[in-house]
## 1
Amino acid sequence: MSSLKTNITLNFINTITGIIFPVITFPYAARVLLPDGIGAVNFFQSIIAYIVLLTSLGIPMYAVREVAKYRDDVEKRNRVTIEITLLSLILCMFGYVAVWLLGEFIPQINSQLDLFYVLSLVIFFTALGVNWFYQAIEDFEFITVRALIFRTLAVISLFLFVKTKDDLLVYAFVVVGSTVGNNFINFIHLRKYITFGRIDWRKLTVWVHFKPASRIFVYNVITSIYLILNTVMLGFMEGDSAVGFYTAGNRLSHIVLSVVASLGVVMLPRCSNLIEMGRTKDFSVITHKSWRFVIALALPSTMGLILLATPIIYVFCGKEFFEASSVLCWTAPVIVFIGLSNVLGIQILYPQGKENLVIWSTVGGAFFNFVLNCLLIPVYSYTGAAVSTFIAELVVLTIQIILGRKYIPFPIFEKIYLNYLLASLLMSVGVLLLVLSITNIWIVLSASVIVGCIIYAGTLWIMKDSLLQETLNYVCKLLKR
């Protein structure tokens, strides 16, 4: 089993490439397929995504915890893996009933049925792919290498085979190819760990996993509704342009958030295994370090996005989206709120079987988000939606802290966190001086990133921050290899 640091590094690489590849491919695809083609694919993908959500039933997160519990008991681990895979495939059949019904009775889908059916391949291969198994046993090297290979193949295929707007079906195969390829290899690679001939199929209890997985399903459904609530309400109340401004600012903050939140993917299986083994002291140590790491990464990221909101929007979205700067300023702190609530929910409460607390916190956030949207969107439009997001995510974090405090194995507030706050404030002063003195947007953005990183890291170095020292030592070891 790889070290936790190695797993974090590999998952970080996987997350970053997952961000970079769409940035490379989407501009090309948009110019070739034009708005109608891109719109058709995205529309069908959204429908397929909801079918996958319904048929997955919360299994991916549940399966990571269950397989990680029995990681050292190979016979039980393998039996649980087969049971959950069979349950996924059974539920997948209901997904294709939904695909057929939609294809037959919805005119917008029926008119491009071949495209819809191609994109629906994701449903079957998601059920078959057992990606959760490799997360649970912490084989992040396999996950990362496999993902890089298929993402690279997808990019090459796009540039080679998608040449005109008539290549829409080819583009659909390219889009699903990465998912299909990844998950097919996942299943084939499973033979390395499980000898199917040794499984006593008569003793399998497939449906025993249905009820506990359905609890996670409730959380996933609430979260899914919650995430699209602002966009839907903005669209009905303010129109497409307001949605565009909100999407631009919110998406940029979530790109940074995805890097911070990726830690949870690595930590969940390790935390679940430690709880099952009764190693509460080790569980406390790694969750405490994870909490501290998120604070150290999220605070400067948040302040940097707020100070550089205008040049960032200009560089990544264009001058037409300047008004989205206010959205980015209000959604940037969400990086801190969601980053910490992920540590509490995914790494601490969920491995201890306290998923109901996570569900209630999400319900609370969704309620506040809806009410605030009703009050703020008519007055402040997309900025009002961003303010609603800010408050709602703060509510989620607050509820988790209040309800789950007795399950948190370390002090939430410590003096050492002031190191990161002070370093972030000093960094902000340096960046603000650059913003006020340099008029060229490209220069101010690049200079601010470099100077900001130097000030932040330099301040922590002077303070002899142990987390920085540990990170630098690990990086040096990697470079020496």
## 2
Amino acid sequence: MNTKDAEVARMFGTRFTPGANYASEIWPGYTGLVIESGELRPMTWGFPRHANSKKTGKPLKPSPVNNARDDKLRIYPIWKEAFRHRRCLIPVTQWCEPEGEDRRNTRTWYSVAGEEVFIVAGIWTPTDEWGDAYSMVMVPGSDQMSLVHDRMPTILRPDDWSVWTDGTPDEAFALLRTWDEDLVVDQTDELWFEKRGSSATLL
């Protein structure tokens, strides 16, 4: 997300409180921007996942689950309630996937042609660990992504924004489909190594 919060708020006609602290590259577990109830506000990217150590049995530090699969939204408890009651819009400049061999993979960026910022479907939840947190909803990847990843964010058209946030669960679920237009793809030589294992970043 390389657009200032004031400009994003102007683009989408939302309220906002100046001073949101977010980086241009947003990694799981860090702060990003979402639009929720007509307000642009910061949240932590990723729902907290809890697990115990296999060696000691003691609780481990929660890890962020940054993406929610469309086919799991109505099944998995971690997503189910948020999908029914707390859907949000995620403004995105572009997102990134690792391409190539593990440990030597590089960054490939995807964006929507002609759009400085576009909207991705999200869900959010209040947490004890990180305050309010959000997750992107992923659908099967388009042909342009077939060699890199089998999933991609759910890109929403303007006519679908209010349906996603305010419609019934069935109406919202009907919007979870693969983007059917060409994406702008930027294959770089920049190494992914800083965050191996993460499935997507936003910029």
